[in-house]
Amino acid sequence: MAYCGVPEIKTFLLFVATALAEILGCYLPWLWLRQGHSAWLLLPAAASLALFAWLLTLHPDASGRVYAAYGGVYVGMALVWLWLVDGIQPSRWDLLGAAVTLAGMAIIAFAPRAG
């Protein structure tokens, strides 16, 4: 029987932190370009994107597999951002799509591997 142990939880939380760093790193320039906020937001945006890239390197798996699995968590976190920051409640179709991508992430990240 499969279970969700500490390594899986740590991996998932690392993906969540990675997604938040990427989303913030893209949101801050959006505020500058689309809403007229200060260009100084580009400094924390650059730091956030650098953090995002560094966090991706902390995963022990092959980079392509990490990027593929990360995409599923990113979709879910983007919808959380939509709700909490943009104030738009995700639709049931948004939630279904996120569930599908998170299931794909779990398959990619946690499937048993030979060797």
Spatial separation of the terminal alpha carbons: 21 Å
Structural class: mainly alpha
Tell me about the largest β-sheet: none
User: What's the total count of β strands?
Assistant: 0
Order of helices and strands: HHHH
Q: Classify the beta-strand content into a percent band.
A: under 5%
Integer average pLDDT: 90
A few lines on this structure:
The chain is an all-alpha fold. The protein has helices spanning 6-35, 42-56, 63-84, 92-110.
Descriptive report:
By secondary structure, the protein is an all-alpha fold. Helices cover 75% and strands 0% of the residues. It has 4 helices and no strands. The chain has helices spanning 6-35, 42-56, 63-84, 92-110. The radius of gyration is 16 Å and the shape is flat.
Features:
115 residues; mainly alpha; 75% helix; flat
